[in-house]
Amino acid sequence: MDNLSSLQRFNIDELAAQVTEQYQNFVVNEVNDSCLRLAVFTGEYPWHRHPDADELFMVLEGELFIDFEERETVALRPHDIFTVPAGVIHRTRAEQRTVNLCFERAAATTEFIS
Predict the structure, then answer these.
(1) Cupin type-2 domain spans which residues (predicted)?
(2) Which of the residues 94, 104, 111, 114 has the least number of beta carbons within 10 Å of its own beta carbon?
(3) Of 111, 107, 102, nearest to 50 (Cα)?
(4) Tally of domains within the chain
(5) Which residues contact 11 (CB under 8 A, 6 or more apart)?
(6) Tens digits of per-residue pLDDT, 45-101?
């Protein structure tokens, strides 16, 4: 494998500006066994948990709310960082367009709660 093939520049603002859908979440890049995801959305993501991985959020634009079953909602604004521990049931929501980064294990699994 050619190690130089991973030498690529990404501009998060440019990637976010290309999103036209109400919800889009994708992997920007992977490092070791972790990945950096970019999420651009308005609305609610379903209740879920990641049984085997913590999930770190960093808001770049807008306001992201993280709701929990057993604690108060956390509101994140630009440059705020918050980590949801593995196994904790939560959902994310945004009343207006929100751009955020998520750092997690690349092989993290998601269990949706009905």
Answers:
(1) 44-96
(2) 114
(3) 111
(4) 1
(5) none
(6) 999 999 999 999 999 999 999 999 989 999 999 999 999 999 999 999 999 999 999
